[in-house]
């Protein structure tokens, strides 16, 4: 990493979920440059075959790192992080940070049971079950895999209202049965207020955003942070789909992204 120029942090997700990760990272590293990469054509990853997912993420990231100097890659997607990190670390020479569902912190504060809300793929993966075995200490866990909530978060960022009745129906298996809910998909913090509304105040809701931000911050040279000034911060986005909805373009603009470029990929 060259310590005289602002670091460039690449964040990847299937869709807009990684923006919840971007939001937390840029709070602690406001002067970094950001590249946001998402795969609208492959979305939703929670229902994509693992080998196709690995191939797509590798292909898209190869494309972007060939074009830009990147200092850190963040896979802002739990579903991808469960299977894609080893292959990325084979060809990327920079640190690759993945997202892990916050099962360990949840187990420390729960008295009754933890609910893990994630994609259908994440709740099935061996990676998740190993985490549960290693970190969930004294309380039981209830798993809820849902793509409907992922779609709701996507739609919210396209300006569409969130239907609380549908949200309540999806979350129903956990209502009254847990005291801590882990948002194990990066799309879900985008619905935090609505999820809180449905669960009520007595349930604690936790996600991994702040932990990832701290991890990324720890990888950026401290002397750089102390001197950091970047009045010319660059934020660009790349997407696999030829077009995206106008309302989503506006959301990206509001978050500081000047353009959304296209990455040519194969159809799923
Ligand atoms: N945001 C993603 C995650 O954290 C994936 C959502 C999806 O595409 O199914 O798992």
From TrEMBL:
InterPro entries: Asp/Glu/hydantoin_racemase (IPR015942), Asp/Glu_race (IPR001920), Asp/Glu_racemase_AS_1 (IPR018187), Glu_race (IPR004391). Pathway: Cell wall biogenesis; peptidoglycan biosynthesis. Pfam families: Asp_Glu_race. Its EC number is 5.1.1.3. GO terms for molecular function: glutamate racemase activity. Substrate binds at residues 13-14, 45-46, 78-79, 186-187. It is an enzyme of class 5 (isomerase). Belongs to the aspartate/glutamate racemases family. PANTHER family: GLUTAMATE RACEMASE. This is Glutamate racemase. It comes from Vibrio algarum.
